Fold this protein.
Amino acid sequence: MAPGCRSHPSHIEASKLSFCLWNVQGVGTDLDLIGPIAFSGQFITCDTNSVVQIVNLGFTGAATNKRFDVKKDGIIDTNGSDPLTYLPGDAFGTAENATGGYYV
């Protein structure tokens, strides 16, 4: 991921009944952030009955802004990884549980 991403609000966006799966087979696979990257929004946006699932993927490099934003029955599933540190970014994400947004 190159520094040109900084104009995008999110790197991953799942909305309106969509499903995004990153299931990396093997050990030691990383997504390299070349930059630092500065998201104008967050790394992941997930809403409206959608799911983002990330399994067996690491991240290297630096990114700024929120890690995630999940709402309206969206689910971000990182296979139990710590929401405070797993996804790229330097600020905690937002899980709007009142509208059914969950980070698991």
